[in-house]
Amino acid sequence: MEDIHLRIETIAQKKLIGLTSEMSLSENSTPILWKGFMTKRKEITNTISDDLISMQVYDPDLDFSRFTPQTIFEKWAVTEVTDFDHIPEGMKTFVLPEGQYAVFLHKGLPSDFPKTAQYIYGQWLPKSGYTLDSRPHFEVLGAKYKNNDSDSEEEVWIPIKE
């Protein structure tokens, strides 16, 4: 696999608004979550950009070497906002803490994502000199993201610490 590692980036705290659901990889309800979010998305009036964020919040004590398809986590469908002055009914807020991230590019279908994840966690991370930090993981679905399209591109943000 070509080196899909792009960069190390430190981000400031971000304010996010969207929907959340508990799930596991084996009982994945991501399409339902996003369908609900997309029907209400226009009610969010103070977005910073058109980018959407798919975020995973794991138990802070999770040992990723023991992660299984049955591991429960929170999945969020969100967008970044300037403030929490107007929160559409039924939506929730999340403050993404500042910190350092390794940013990768995933190209292709969602079904190809396990290969990207295997590269990140199985090859890049062990050799990188970094360890996972216990902050949310997320994907930025920007202008080049096309749902279920082989030409789709998204950025994968993995929380790291030295």
Shape: globular
- Helix residue percentage: 10-25%
Helix-strand string = EEHEEEEHEEE
The average pLDDT score comes to 92
Total count of domains: 1
Give the CATH level 1 class.
Alpha Beta
Number of strands: 9
Rg, Cα atoms, Å: 15 Å
Structural class, judged by helices and strands? alpha+beta
> What is the distance, rounded to the nearest whole angstrom, between the alpha carbons of the first and last residues?
25 Å
Any low-confidence stretches, pLDDT <50, length ≥5? none
In CATH, the architecture is Alpha-Beta Barrel
Biggest β-sheet strands, sense, barrel = 9 strands, antiparallel
- The tally of helices reads 2
Tell me which oligomeric state these chains represent.
Answer: single chain
Strand content: 35-45%
Question: Can you say what the CATH homologous superfamily is?
Answer: Regulatory factor, effector binding domain
- Quote the CATH topology: Multidrug-efflux Transporter 1 Regulator Bmrr, Chain A
Descriptive notes:
By secondary structure, the chain is of the alpha+beta class. It has a single domain, classed as Alpha-Beta Barrel (Multidrug-efflux Transporter 1 Regulator Bmrr, Chain A). 17% of the residues lie in helices and 38% in strands. Strands 1, 2, 3, 4, 5, 6, 7, 8 and 9 form a nine-stranded antiparallel beta sheet that branches. The longest helix has 16 residues, at 113-128.
Keywords:
162 residues, alpha+beta, Multidrug-efflux Transporter 1 Regulator Bmrr, Chain A, 17% helix
How do the strands and helices of this protein lay out in sequence?
Elements lengths: L4 E7 L2 E10 L6 H11 L11 E6 L15 E9 L10 E5 L2 E9 L5 H16 L2 E2 L4 E5 L11 E9 L1
